[in-house]
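#structure-requests
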Amino acid sequence: MNSNIQINELESMLIAMIVLFLGYFINSKIKVLRKYNIPEPIVGGLIVAAIIALLHQQGIDVTFKLTLKDTLMQMFFATVGLAASFKLLVKGGSRVFLFLAVATLYIVIQNAVGVSLSSLLGLDPLIGLVAGSITLSGGHGTGAAWSQTFANDFGLQTLELSMAAATFGLVMGGIIGGPVAQRLIHKYQLKSEYGESDNHHIEHPDLVTYSDHEEDRITAKNTVEILFILLICVAGAAHVKMVVDSFGISWLRIPDFVYALFIGVLVTNVCETTRVYKVNKETVDALGTISLSLFLAMALMSLQLWELFDLALPMLIILSVQTVALAVFAYFVTFRLMGKNYDAAIISGGHCGFGMGATPTAVMNMGSLVSRNGPSPQAFMVVPIVGAFFIDIANLVVLQTYISFIR
């Protein structure tokens, strides 16, 4: 007899915090996790998700009420926008398009790997796209959308497979990013231009590090002010999306958090230009780190790991090869094309995140890396913009091209 346990909103938030504390504790005790910068939400979240999966096998389903999860994600991306002064945008603008080209190149390779292995293993080549950029670079949402298209146009049922593949990618993207980037940092002896200390804000008050070790000097007044601005960004994003969607442009599927990011960019640069208000970057840093940590804890602890059990051996082979392929590409190609410096190494770790999972996974990888090695503000501007928006357009074009050849 199956039973369903529903965890209310407050208790779900408490469990998310426990996930973080569990991740912090385990990482502090296991040296290899610290050495390769495996993010705490991955460690704690997978343990809780595994417990939930075991209960599911016994006929007990646990459901969390995570109504704040999306809000926390949007708040984090709003802090990315607030950290992007015009000077930083000018400095890193060209690298956004360079990284977009690198990421698009990898999508082509990712689908080539998926389609080739599917054909070799006797599967429909379209399954290779499901085990390619549809779910790995696209995530759960893109996987669900394309599953409907495959069902309607080709009579191919791929929804469950898409959800399982996206879950696999989310986990693996969070695992490989840290080791790949850390290996590059050690091999080439790379260092952040801001140093490795935990008190960067003394010399660089406008720097946003997204390090949970940073010694932030914040006040209650600053916290309330920045929280107010973040909520404006989140609320404004919903209204802007509503207006854009009203134009009926079907291909322009921009998620809420992208609007939150760009509203943050607008706010911080208007304030910087007019000098009517100075955005306290230390408070932005602290609230951004908190929002990201809690969002990722919620996302990881609510993973339905039993979906992975349904993956047939051929799909596991394809996805495992995809994991290795991305790690190799990020290590040898992304790093070199992005400049072979410290920022390039952090971007490579981020590429592992959204190339296998999602943009928040990429940011989680980078946050874990900069907490240990020092800030990389350029990486935190380049990767979220490409991973959250531009890559979806590139993915759509590449997928349509592949489908035209396959069918």
